[in-house]
Amino acid sequence: MPSPTSTILFLDSSVVLGYVVGQHKTKLSKLSTDIAASKVSCGVSDSVENECSTKIKGLTDYLGKMIMGVIGGQVAEQRKSVKQSLDASVDKRDIVAMELAFREMYAGKHKLPSSPTSNVLDLQTVEIFMVNGLESMVKSSSPPNYYVAMTKLAALVLKYMTDAKTSYDTLIAIKHTLATVHTLGPDTNDITSLELIGLEHPDARHVASALQAQKSGACKKAVFVSLDYRTILKFQFDILNKLGIWCTDPLYAIHHS
After folding, report:
1. Residue 11 sits in a domain of what CATH number?
2. Inside any domain, residue 189
3. 84-111, pLDDT tens digit by residue?
4. H or E stretch at 101
């Protein structure tokens, strides 16, 4: 139990998952440096922990569907159009087909697999990851055929997600090197107030849980740290004025402690 005079920075799922999958590196590197220098405590509510676990488990399936459904389909169509067998080795034309697949995804021409985890990684991150994987196969001394290449991309996804799960266990779930999990029962009135402000229910529960730590005396001050401007940070001042808790970007978190 932290000292009642201390501040706890409660991390949103967007921050935790940013660490896990390697996004927002500049902001999160600054947050890590600030935390180490100030010795401030970091926590996550049990609701954030549950959301992160669910999204990490679902991300593997999401990326798998993207490989086989969208990218694999585009590469196969490109080969069909030039009468190139799927048994032929992958080459730069397959990378160009992948480029076209992503251009069409950016333009909204492809319906991406529906998943509550699809916002964990942005499309550009996925694109870099996939292109690097296929390019390394094309440049190898013995490039695989289409079927083997798709299987290898799926294996890369599995390794990526295994590494992500290991990172999550180290940061949060098991070793708590980044933040400690706090089991908190948020006030339903606070959740309702946050929803009336405009927050979606899961986000309202996360913020209300952090507020509960402050109200219960677990800490003198709770600060909720998020990267989500669309559904949380745009209501920053409304939340502060209504409920008395700061929601802030990682760049500024330490200055609210």
Report:
1. 3.40.50
2. yes
3. 999 999 999 999 999 999 898 888 776 6
4. helix 92-106
